[in-house]
Design brief:
By secondary structure, the protein is of the alpha+beta class. It folds into two domains: 110 residues, no CATH class; 40 residues, no CATH class. 20% of the residues lie in helices and 15% in strands. The chain contains four helices and eight strands. The strands form three sheets. The chain has a three-stranded mixed beta sheet with strand order 1-4-5. The longest helix is centred in the C-terminal third of the chain and has 11 residues.
Length: 155
Amino acid sequence: MRKHVQISMDEFKARLEAQDVPSEHFAFRCPHCGHIQSPASLVQYMEGKDAGNTAYCCCEGRFNSGGPGCDWTLGGMLRIHTLEVITDDGHVVPVFEPATPEEAQALMSTTVGNIKKCRVCGCDDFHACPGGCSWVEPGLCSACAGDEAWGCAWI
């Protein structure tokens, strides 16, 4: 049986910030197969918010067919994870281990191209326009769709 180490939310955040990458590139290691993933690697399968909420608990293999990773997810009967975070309100949440800074930076160099960006205003999968936006076509967000015809964005 694996030992579960519990850390505070502040310690978990410190471990992620030590990776020295933007939050959309925070990297995690699947406890089942060892695959390293981040929200930026998952954004090709789901929206940015969902990718950010999935990267620490569900292996990328659940969302691709024949790609990297396995189909492991935390929260089931089998408890193979080794790290649990105690949230500020006292809940204990199982999480994938944060990757090393070197692993996170290496993954970022290969996944930065996965993040869609608006050609008009520059918003992306993880940084929406004020008030929110969505993709209307590749490279164009809903907030800028009408403005593009005029050659400018009113942001």
